[in-house]
Amino acid sequence: MESVAPILKVDNLSVRLDDQKILHEVSFNLNQGDTVAIVGPNGAGKSVLFRALLNLIPYTGTITWAKDIKINYIPQRFTIDRDFPLTVKEFFHFKTKNHHDIFSALRSVGITDEHHISHHLLNQRLGWLSVGQIQRILIAWAIIDQPDVILFDEPTAGIDVGGEETIYHLIKKLKDEKDLTILIISHDLNVVYKHATSVLCLNKDLICYGAPADALDPAALKELYGEATFFTHHHQHK
Q: Cα separation of 25 and 60, whole Å?
């Protein structure tokens, strides 16, 4: 059986900012259709990894994306002042003015498909929306031009527990429907076990990489987070 080339190859990636080591010789591959969770303590270099993958900062080593790959990125926080005069519709118009495509993207992320309510939402200022609404708008904006890969930097930051589960289920649904490859930064190990095919553990160095049940052993967790009380994750079969 012919092996499939990875969609991304990272070899010996290192980043220094202000003469501080942020990432040190990180190597991993990403295959099409994977959902890779990136975990580690604050300051471990998770968001910096994303910036390097997007070629936004200097680095050493090599980052090789497959040819013609389209990548979109959803930042951790997208805060807009209530008085900033940008509506949802105007935000989408940075990518497309095709209203059919806009409504289709909104429906995909669970925004109601009732025509008049969608129009009402489109005319709202972004600064007037709730954190959960903003996150759905950002996801819709990210999928509207049919990317191959989406990078999510803590997509549920500032969202309540019930809303978190809804967002993660939405991401999984879109991944399956649109054959997306997902990289997602998360602090919630339960989310990692439930939704990720692989986990990449960072603490400036690459601590572990593999299936969550195998990679997240007590030794790796101790190296990531220091002394802590660890639990054994039990998979529930329905």
A: 9
Give the residue carrying structure tokens 């990518």: 95
184 closest CA partner among 56, 74, 110? 74
Query: Nearest CA to 223 among 195, 199, 204?
Result: 204
Token look-up 């990720």 returns 196
pLDDT digits (tens, 9 = 90+) for 81-123: 788 889 999 999 999 999 889 888 888 888 765 445 567 788 8
Strand residues in the chain grouped as ranges (E)? 8-17, 20-30, 35-39, 60-65, 71-74, 149-153, 181-185, 198-203, 205-210
What CA–CA distances, in Å, run from 220 to 35, 42, 86, 180, 203?
A: 20, 16, 45, 28, 10
The fold of 1-70+148-238 is: Rossmann fold (3.40.50)
pTM as predicted: 0.85
Domain boundaries, the chain: 1-70+148-238, 77-146
